[in-house]
Structure to design on (429 residues):
């Protein structure tokens, strides 16, 4: 009988510990889920039983139906008063709700002790995040339209004659390429967890100028040919996707700062028509004046990864006209692969439709800024300004001749800048 006592005692201890596993294992994160609040931090992993009394943890309301006394995005303090007594309060407004916690069948249960609690909520602390979770997602879609202007230029160095190299033999510029642009943007944000962002834009070119110059001397000297042409057709478009971590901070003004990594793709599909020869060389170029039949194309691609940052600021609650304005700013740095393909339709010595190609490495940066004006809870006007600046290192230009031969020359540089102004509507869910 004496020998069996230690074994019985051990079984009693094990049964006792299993009976109270729910209470001993409940963490501050479990409490936040039940209350409908959210804030990342070390304290989420603290056991409720180990949290000292009168210790305040600042957090944010994300599911106001669970705490009707507070509004979504409102910053509050959660304070442990005693072993099972707690309170949630806003020190600035004086709003306060007291509650107690209990455990039933390994479930954490909130029990109201003041008239501000809407209802008792009992959800297993081991369950996955459900539709009643505090981790609500912020969804926003913006459709906008506006004006865009692009400039692009490139030049090559090559042999004009055997043994005679010209460092800038040919240079092409497209200036004031104007287009009507529509753009769609979307974002999914779980504050202090993850953010997803996407953008797609398309522009119809309606005006622009092109110049094609050829030189016989180094450093753009001895220009022997120049044509000035129309570039009032074509299109431009951009696609970008990104993921990041959104840091949410602030009380009266809510700031979200999101470092991002992403990937983007950009095209300019440019045209040349209505040619006018402005500098001519007898026997080599058309005479000065208009010439017929010009219908050439030049299509570019820029694609690659990028890193950047988004910053967004808005009022925690709207009580005045000024608090309806939200501001934002983003910056992106891009690494790009640049490729291009051209069809010079009047050059009989070139192949068609692929007369020559470009290939080079490049980089670029993009800034986006603007503001939203909140009309209703889920609808806002959007004003946006974009600017981007891209360039390449030296690369390769490959020409395809009509007889089937090819030749490579040095692509010295490619430069592309663009800005766009747009107005749109943002929907939030």
């Amino acid at each position: 009988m004496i020998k069996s006592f230690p074994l019985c005692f051990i079984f009693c201890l094990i049964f006792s510990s299993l009976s109270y596993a729910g209470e001993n294992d409940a963490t501050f994160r479990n409490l936040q889920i039940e209350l409908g609040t959210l804030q990342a931090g070390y304290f989420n992993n603290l056991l409720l039983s180990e949290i000292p009394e009168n210790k305040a943890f600042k957090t944010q309301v994300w599911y106001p139906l669970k705490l009707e006394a507070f509004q979504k995005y409102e910053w509050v303090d959660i304070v442990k008063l005693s072993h099972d007594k707690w309170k949630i309060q806003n020190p600035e407004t004086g709003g306060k709700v007291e509650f107690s916690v209990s455990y039933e069948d390994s479930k954490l249960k909130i029990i109201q002790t003041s008239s501000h609690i809407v209802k008792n909520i009992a959800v297993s602390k081991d369950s996955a995040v459900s539709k009643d979770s505090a981790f609500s997602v912020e969804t926003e879609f913006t459709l906008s339209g506006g004006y865009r202007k692009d400039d692009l230029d490139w030049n090559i160095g090559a042999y004009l004659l055997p043994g005679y190299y010209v460092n800038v033999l040919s240079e092409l510029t497209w200036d004031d390429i104007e287009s009507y642009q529509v753009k769609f943007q979307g974002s999914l944000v779980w504050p202090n967890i993850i953010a997803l962002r996407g953008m797609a834009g398309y522009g119809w070119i309606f005006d622009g100028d092109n110049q094609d110059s050829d030189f016989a001397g180094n450093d753009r000297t001895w220009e022997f040919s120049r044509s000035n042409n129309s570039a009032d057709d074509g299109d431009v478009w951009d696609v970008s996707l990104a993921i990041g971590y959104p840091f949410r901070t602030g009380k009266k003004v809510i700031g979200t700062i999101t470092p991002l990594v992403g990937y983007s793709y950009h095209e300019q599909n440019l045209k040349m028509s209505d040619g006018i020869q402005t500098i001519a060389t007898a026997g080599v170029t058309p005479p000065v004046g208009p010439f017929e039949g010009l219908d050439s194309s030049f299509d570019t691609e820029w694609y690659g990864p990028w890193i950047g940052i988004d910053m967004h600021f808005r009022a925690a609650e709207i009580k005045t006209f000024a608090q309806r304005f939200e501001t934002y700013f983003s910056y992106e740095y891009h690494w790009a692969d640049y490729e291009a393909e051209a069809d010079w339709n009047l050059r009989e010595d070139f192949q068609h439709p692929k007369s020559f190609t470009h290939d080079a490495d490049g980089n670029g940066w993009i800034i986006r800024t603007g503001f939203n004006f909140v009309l209703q809870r889920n609808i806002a006007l959007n004003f946006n300004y974009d600017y981007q600046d891209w360039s390449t290192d030296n690369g390769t230009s490959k020409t395809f001749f009509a007889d089937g031969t090819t030749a490579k020359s040095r692509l010295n540089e490619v430069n592309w800048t663009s800005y766009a102004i747009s107005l749109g509507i943002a929907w939030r869910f």
In short: Residues 1-23, 115-135 have pLDDT under 50 and may be disordered. The helical segments are 4-19, 21-25, 28-35. DSSP finds three helices and 21 strands in the chain. The CA atoms of residues 27 and 369 lie 41 Å apart.
